[in-house]
Amino acid sequence: MSKADTSLPIDHVVDGLYIGGYAALRHADQLRAANITHVLKLYEGLPRLPADFVTLENPIADDRPIPPTSLRAGLEFMRVHLAAKQRVLVLCSSGASRSAAFVIAYLLEGGADLRLAYMQVVRAHPDTELSVPVWQSLLTIYGAPYSLIDVERWAAGIDR
Length: 160
Description:
Layout: E1 10-14, E2 17-21, H1 28-33, E3 38-41, E4 54-57, H2 68-83, E5 88-92, H3 98-109, H4 114-124, H5 132-142, H6 148-155
Parallel strand pairs: 2-5, 3-4, 3-5
Antiparallel strand pairs: 1-2
């Protein structure tokens, strides 16, 4: 499922893993119909998810570094539910930075290179635009052999 074959404002990245912003919650019935009822929620407050959704409330401040403990908790939620063949939606406010970082981290945990993981997420979800502190978190946590200059070039479409 991708935007091309659904009216949901979310994108399928890989193997039952979806990304979007909280606008997707206006489509709870469609999410249920698509069997997407497991949500990693990365923003604080409203809107809230319906009670029948399995949700990990893991709020991360926008435009701040990702705390490693929060990243681990989110990754564990994704791993457990994806391994059980359940579809997981990763949500932040706009679906551009925090949610993309968690999906990229999931790909990194599976052995992907940071550059290739980023490009895979951008292809699936063109709204991807990680903030500098979020990028710095990924570079630090994963010890990636890249710099902020490298990732800025990727975001600008150079070296993709």
